[in-house]
């Protein structure tokens, strides 16, 4: 584990095993990519994919965040799992699972790896989708930048469970506990231009099963 | 609008009005704070609060991200609203609302503003909670750093609606549309050490009303 990704605050929440890190990454639909542009930090949300030890990100060929990531990148993924309500203001926290990956990204230039990287990005969010749709044309490939970030320097941080008010600091009558949070999927909204008689793609039901669904489709 | 926060890609998704920006910020429970540490980007998730034109963030007095933010910070907030499934791989996207705030943070040293900043952080996530719980002690205040980031340089980016496959690029039989996503709250989990007969705090039901709830508490 590199000291550059060592968890310093609340080190009891640190996880350095790749199984935990991969699970957090693979459940995430987006990451936040941090780069340095003209000496100042810039953080943008974006999709990503993973193949083994490598994260793939893509964007327009002119994308300056992807270009800056070649000089230094931080990819952070966060799942918010709950609001932790303690009996003191300072004891409040959140339950979460996060991963931080640091390093210098690599521009992916090999055509086979570029295509595999793009495929990984689509498949990461919607498994099975790549083969249901039209593949990227040569022109689309040319307009797209793909970068790779190694998982060599990464760590996870996980908080779960109730608030941790010391026994001596529990004023009577104050409710404490956790309000759990999670992401859910609503009913798919077909494209208004979708023709008659087109069945929902298998990837749609597959992606919906990744999340609890709202029974009244009230999303 | 500063060119440093101008939306360059998909400028049709840019929003620069503070009403839109404030609404996105105020709905968010966490942000991703980007800083530069030893020349390299570092992005960490954290809570935050807003009072008018100022974001407040807090952490341990020794927190190096907060210290680095005084030299340059980017606070990014993202709501993921849906998976946009196009008929081509390259047409895939996500519906989202994001805000980017850039600038140099200010260390908050005035005791009154420090307390107001901490209050804003707690109240941002759980409105009404500050007055239900024990306030920070002098020792807790001393152990806590509070920084402020002005909303002078900020922009929002919003994508909504269906995929945008050109009419000439709609192979027959391919399902296209949006799978909506959103955050929901589950049933509150009382602290295992909570005594008998302690009613749920008003802030709990208030915070749950911010989200759709899962009827089977299946969170």
Explain the overall architecture.
- 2 copies of one chain form a homodimer.
- By secondary structure, the first copy, chain A, is an alpha+beta fold.
- In chain A, about 20% of the residues lie in helices and about 35% in strands.
- Chain A contains 5 helices and 12 strands.
- In chain A, the strands form 2 sheets. In chain A, strands 1, 2, 3, 6, 7, 10 and 11 form a 7-stranded antiparallel sheet that branches. In chain A, strands 4-5-9-8 form a 4-stranded antiparallel sheet.
- At the A-B interface, strand 2, strand 3, strand 6, strand 7 and helix 3 of A face strand 2, strand 3, strand 6, strand 7 and helix 3 of B.
- Strand 11 of chain A pairs antiparallel with strand 12 of chain B, so a sheet runs across the interface.
């Amino acid at each position: 584990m590199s000291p550059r990704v060592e968890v310093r605050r609340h080190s009891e929440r640190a996880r350095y095993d790749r199984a935990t890190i991969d699970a957090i990454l693979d459940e995430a639909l987006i990451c936040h990519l941090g780069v340095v542009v003209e000496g100042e930090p810039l953080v943008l949300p974006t999709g990503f994919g993973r193949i083994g030890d490598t994260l793939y990100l893509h964007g327009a060929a002119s994308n300056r965040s992807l270009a800056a990531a070649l000089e230094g990148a931080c990819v952070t993924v966060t799942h918010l799992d709950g609001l932790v309500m303690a009996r003191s203001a300072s004891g409040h926290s959140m339950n979460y699972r996060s991963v931080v990956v640091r390093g210098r990204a690599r521009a992916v230039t090999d055509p086979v790896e570029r295509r595999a990287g793009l495929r990984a990005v689509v498949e990461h969010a919607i498994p099975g989708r790549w083969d249901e749709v039209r593949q990227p044309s040569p022109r689309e490939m040319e307009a797209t930048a793909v970068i790779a970030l190694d998982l060599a320097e990464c760590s996870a941080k996980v908080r779960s469970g109730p608030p941790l008010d010391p026994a001596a600091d529990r004023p009577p009558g104050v409710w404490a506990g956790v309000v759990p949070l999670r992401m859910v999927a609503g009913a798919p909204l077909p494209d208004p231009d979708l023709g008659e008689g087109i069945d929902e793609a298998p990837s749609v039901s597959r992606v919906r099963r990744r999340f609890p669904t709202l029974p009244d489709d009230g999303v």
